[in-house]
Amino acid sequence: MRKLIRSASLGLAATITLSGCGAKVTSDAKAAKSRSVTVANCGEKVTYDRRPERVVTNDVGITELMFALGLEDHMAGYVMPADKGSLDGLPYRAAYDRAKWLSKDRITKETALDARADLVFAGWNYGFNENALTPDDLHKEGMDTYLLTESCHNARTSTSRGIMPPLDALYTDLENLGRIFGVEKRAQKLIKQYRATVADVHAKAPKSADRPSVFLYDSGQDQPFTSGRYAAPEQIISEAGGSNLLHDLKDSWTTVGWETVVKRNPDVIVINDYGSTSAEQKKEFLLSYPPLRNVSAIKHKRIYTLDYADLVESPRNPSAIKRLGAYLRRVTGGS
C-alpha cells in the first residue's frame, strides 16, 4: 500500500456553474478546512491530504477529464503532443484557454518541477514509462500522482495494461477525481449523463449474432498497432453495436500481425486519427495494401474515422459510441 501524506487547507464547498462545454468550480473560502481522501488507484490505496491546486496533466484525454469536472483553475498546465498544433475545434476550448500549454513534447520531471506541480495526472504509456519517468520519480520530489485507470498494469505480464472494462475505468476516474477535488456531485452528474448516452445507443444495437466485426487501426504498416479488451475502443465498438476483432487480446494498446486481421476478416475498420500520418493517408494505405484486398471492410470500403481523444479514455467516449453506432447501423442495414 502506498500512502501519500500531505497537510493543507482544503475548500470543501463548491459551487458549479456550467460554461460552454466545461464547468467552472469556485470554492467557498469560509467552508475551507483540512481533510484526507483515500481512493483506490491501479490496485493501491492512495491518500491525498489536500486538494491539489497545481495539477499537471499529460495528453488530451487526461486533460479533458479535468476540464469535464470544471477543474481547470486547479491546473498548473498540461502537456500535449505537437501534432495537436491548434486548439481550434476542440471541446472545452474555453478551459484550454484558461489552462497553460506547458510542453508539446513528452512530460518530464523538469516540466513538473518548473510548473511547481503538487500532482501529476498521467498514466503508463500516457506520460509515465519505466525507462523515463515513473510516479516514484515524482514522489521523491514531493509531488503526488494519479494514474489513468485505462493504463494500469494488469497481472498477465509486466507490460500489458488494463484491469477493468474501459467505461468502468472512465467512471472510476471521474468518481475518484470527484472525491479528490471535492466535486462529487459534478462527477456523479457526468457519470449519469454518460451512462444514459451509452444505454440509448446500446438499446439500438443488433443482437450479438448480427454484430459486425470491427478492427481498430491505430498505425503501423509492417505490423498494425491496435486495441485489445482493456482499451477504450473495446466498449466504444461493443456498445455502438459492433464486436471488437481483438476482444480476446488481454491488453489495452498493442501490436498484432496482419495475418490475424486477414484471417478474422473484419466487416468494418475504424481509423484512429492522430499523428503525422493523416486519417486519409492511413485509409489509402489500407485500401492499397495487397494482403487486405479480400477483407470484407476493404472490399466494401467500410472505413470510419474517430479522433484520438475519442478512442483513449476521455469524456469524449460516450459521444464516440453514439457516432460510431449511427455509422454501423447505416452501413449494415440497421435502423
Automatic annotation (TrEMBL):
**Which residue positions does the secretion signal occupy?**
none
**Which InterPro entries does the record match to this protein?**
ABC_Transporter_SBP, ABC_transptr_periplasmic_BD
| Pfam entry (one) | Peripla_BP_2
User: Where would I find the Fe/B12 periplasmic-binding domain in this sequence?
Assistant: 54-335
The record, for CDD domains, names: TroA_a (cd01148)
**Recorded family membership:** Belongs to the bacterial solute-binding protein 8 family.
UniProt-recorded name of the protein: Iron transporter
